[in-house]
Amino acid sequence: MLFNSVRKKSFFHGVSTTSDQTAPEINLIPFIDVLLVILIFLMISTTFTRYQELSITLPSAEGAAAKGKPRDIAVAISSDGRVAIDGKRIALDQLTNVLTASAKNTGGDNGPNVIIAADGKAPHQSVMLVMEAARNANLPNVVFATQSKSK
């Protein structure tokens, strides 16, 4: 029972007697357990909703101009995920082969820079595919093109 005090009324005497007079007490341990479960549920659910509502605008940046004219391979990624290398549209499954061929045409000791110019609304997966293809073609110098901030 919730309360432990018990009152007995004597049937024959009409006098009430009490046995084991103890103060009523509520067991708080199950109550605390339920509160902790609710707290954990709220912490997890608010973390996920915060990241779902995150709005990202891709960066614009300013930097110093390069000192020399580097050899580069220009890779453009459109907003719908299409890829062009040096102005020629390329199928996604041919990226590594075309980048390897372009690297051989430019020659040099360090290898060319791969300049990725991705649209601000381009799918992240397309950018990652281009970066992976550059790595597979042994082109370690990958650079992202950005816009200058207008003053």
Automatic annotation (TrEMBL):
Chain segments annotated as transmembrane: 28-48
Name the Gene Ontology biological process terms.
Answer: protein transport
Keywords, ordered alphabetically? Cell membrane, Membrane, Protein transport, Transmembrane, Transmembrane helix, Transport
The record gives the membrane topology as: Single-pass membrane protein; Single-pass type II membrane protein
Q: What are the subcellular locations of this protein?
A: Cell membrane
Instruction: Tell me yes or no: is Membrane among this UniProt entry's keywords.
Output: yes
Instruction: Extract the GO molecular function terms from the UniProt entry.
Output: transmembrane transporter activity
Q: Per the record, GO CC terms?
A: plasma membrane
Tell me where on the tree of life, at the top rank, the source sits.
Bacteria
Tell me which Pfam families the record gives.
ExbD
Q: Which PANTHER family match?
A: BIOPOLYMER TRANSPORT PROTEIN EXBD-RELATED, EXBD MEMBRANE COMPONENT OF PMF-DRIVEN MACROMOLECULE IMPORT SYSTEM
Family classification: Belongs to the ExbD/TolR family.
Q: What is this protein called?
A: Biopolymer transport protein ExbD
Upper lineage is: Bacteria, Pseudomonadati, Pseudomonadota, Betaproteobacteria, Burkholderiales
